[in-house]
Amino acid sequence: MPWFSEKLVNGYPSASLQSLPPAVPFYQGILDQTPADLLACCAGDLRIHDPRVGDVVGASDFVDYVTATREWLALGDAILTPGFVLHTAVRSVEEVVLDLTVGGERQELRCAVVAERDAEHRLSDIRIYHSLWPLFTNHHVSTPAIHADPEVQLPAVVRDNLEARAADDADAILETYEDGAAVQTSASGFRIFTRREELRRLDRAATVPGTKPAVTICAATDDGRTCAIEYKVTHFSRPEPDQVGVTLFERGDSGRIRSERSYLVSCGLNADQPRAFERTESLKPAFARSRSALVPRELQGLEVGCE
Questions:
Q1: Which contacts qualify for 6-11: CB closer than 8 Å, 24 or more apart?
Q2: Residue 253 to residues 226, 250, 297, 305, Cα–Cα distance (Å)
Q3: Fold identical between 8-129 and 156-266?
Q4: Predicted TM-score of the model (pTM)
Q5: 251 touches 265 (CB < 8 A)
Q6: CATH class for the region spanning 8-129
Q7: pLDDT for 12-37, tens place per residue?
């Protein structure tokens, strides 16, 4: 919820957040506000990490990014459906669904936008997480950058869930969920798992010995009911992460998890590959002025990279 509007948090007034400047959803703000108005809400060293275009740093790049993203949304005839917002004094996590045209057909792009604020409540860092499957044939593109916080604190049930996963203890994993809990994933396309047997199969997927992924928790945002964790996933003993992501764990009245929603961005295997917009300029002349070209998924053989 990075930009401008009401003092309500998920429909309820929050006394602890009364000093915050008003805000509206990220993509809606890009559509409705001028780049200058948006820039006025930002710290001088604002950095945006967008998996479609890579890093955006500084006022000049920011204005170009806002203009290009507005053009991208307009050309895709995008319909924005706002979702849950997790808001604290220093960080917000916003969920949104973009329904837009890609390659001649409508696609749903489910996104999570994490926004950091400085001591003066100005935006200092924005990280966008979503799968690239709806947009690209090869979805290895730029990855939001986040560094691990060694002092990150997690709610007990979230910590228990992660520890059970690391131990491959399916029974212990299931014990952290309420009956009827819903788990949403974005890997290989959007899916929701609800029955306990589905969750058991999901968490007991076969892995090659010695290739179990290592998960590094980087940040946690918690309002007492919902906790969003940002993390890196590393496979095959490679030093660079294969994926980065954010997962929201919503606790029910029982204290166990009743809803889990994940947004993952896959990293490229070759960090020297160019960004997606650099490879698509010659393919999509109409978008060459921007860095956010939509690439139809039917363009087989397109290579896009990770920075």
A1: 9/85, 9/87, 9/223, 10/84, 10/85, 10/86, 10/87
A2: 12, 10, 42, 43
A3: yes
A4: 0.78
A5: no
A6: alpha beta
A7: 334 444 455 456 789 999 999 999 99
